[in-house]
Amino acid sequence: MAIQNIKKELDLIPDRPGVYIFRNRSGRVIYVGKAVSLPNRLRSYFQPGGLSERIRKMTEEAARLEYIITDTEAEALVLECNLIKENRPKYNIQLKDDKSYPYIRVTAEEFPRVMMTRNLVRDGSRYFGPYPNVGAVKETMDFLRKLFSFRTCSERKLAPRSRTCLNGQIKQCMGPCVGNVSLEKYQEMIEQLVLFLEGRTNEVEKRLSQQMKDAAERLDFEEAARLRNQLDAVNKLHEQQRVAQATGPDQDFLAVGSYLDDVCVVILRARGGNVVAKEHYFLTGAEGLPEGEVLSSFIKRYYHRGREIPSAILTSAQVDEADLLTS
Length: 327
Prior knowledge:
The protein is built from eleven helices and ten strands. The chain is an alpha+beta fold. It has three domains: 2-87, GIY-YIG endonuclease (3-Layer(aba) Sandwich); 103-194 and 231-237, no CATH class; 251-325, Ubiquitin-like (UB roll). The strands form three sheets. Strands 9-8-7-10 form a four-stranded mixed beta sheet. Strands 2-1-3 form a three-stranded antiparallel beta sheet. Helix 8 runs antiparallel to helix 9. It is elongated, with a radius of gyration of 25 Å.
């Protein structure tokens, strides 16, 4: 079985959550999986008699193993979904969870709306996520509405009217449709909300903590408990997905690794903020050279072959940009 040839690599794999990728002899991705513990999960493929017919066929075809370490199992789940959608591996026919994960969207309108969505549209909106915990996103949207009072109505409903809607009456909308708030003040509120979603939540946390204190002092324990639950939802929301940034630019991440006499450059390709592919290349004649020199030489060869050049290339070591420009 070809997969037995990579069994010796398992001792080198960190005991961390992540995604693993099996490729066939031609380099095509044939299976993508996720794991809480990469080595423990991968060892299961070497247990006799414990594999389904589909996975047994996959192991017979597999010729190479790759893996990507993540910070959390949630990140591994999102990355697995992205890689499966990008590569469509033949042995991932039945996806374990083929849903789109939710984002929080801040529209680019004059009076922006904030909403949950599962679709990313390049219309100038700002997106935050994706978030595997749908329940936490819904709870936090409720919290954001009460804290920032943004509008949720359509442009048609925003047209000038004589009285505010129900959300305005219960103080969950600032009421731009009836002139209760200026454009400047409303946009300032949206920028504060964006800062919160970016993780700079000190001011928000201060306000929430003060509200909890005030509720406790007036012996309104039900309200204090409600505010506590909102804070819990914020904590869940901000287990941020560093794997999928949603609105990030197209980027390539390059790093050099070495083991004994082998030198390898690994590339993670992110498109539209989502990690969609991993590539690696073993180099000859690079033993003992500084990482920056290795990367500089590799970049010149890799991108000068008609490959797509992303808007940003991030490297694990300093690269002489002048050297790249004159090549």
